[in-house]
Amino acid sequence: xxxxxxxxxxxxxxxxxxxxxxxxxxxxxxxxxxxxxxxxxxxxxxxxxxxxxxxxxxxxxxxxxxxxxxxxxxxxxxxxxxxxxxxxxxxxxxxxxxxxxxxxxxxxxxxxxxxxxxxxxxxxxxxxxxxxxxxxxxxxxxxxxxxxxxxxxxxxxxxxxxxxxxxxxxxxxxxxxxxxxxxxxxxxxxxxxxxxxxxxxxxxxxxxxxxxxxxxxxxxxx
Length: 222
Known about the structure:
This protein is an alpha+beta fold and 222 residues long. The protein is built from seven helices and nine strands. It has helices at 12-21, 32-41, 90-107, 140-145, 149-160, 171-185, 192-202; strands at residues 2-5, 44-52, 55-67, 71-76, 86-87, 111-114, 163-166, 210-213, 218-221. Strands 1, 2, 3, 4, 5 and 6 form a six-stranded mixed sheet that branches. A three-stranded antiparallel sheet has the order 7-8-9.
């Protein structure tokens, strides 16, 4: 089994095909993140692919972060909820993790962080992250009924007041609401160019949801 790096856009299709057909593959494992992170932030990326007889049997996207505030680290994947190795078997997964550890030592990073959903044997799992996941029912009313009563009442009240969802918001419209919200909380805001690159790279895989009041502009966006 060989492990090499994804470097050419013409190879993105094989990478993404493996990710989309693997039960542990997520949107955050797609090859386009290599372009997003490099273009929007200038960070070095190392997208490792394990191959058996030329076929991809495992992937591990990584990015090197150098920051005076957050330190020097190797992450799969920064700015993403998930990451970590996605592999067809334990051998491929172990090969990817081993190469990531060797890369971390060569780069002399402070630590290697893999944001996978399942624990990897032999690796320490910090308790700083919590994931909330829920399956969605095809019936919207069942999903609404699953929301706690008080929150459900607020949703119905918003709908009664004329709040309406919209999937046609522009990146600039989204960013105006996003930036105002985070500044009010005292939270640093990611640059506008990041969201423009994100939308440009992923196209229809990246949707902008906004909530508008009447004929006015968006009051909530995601």
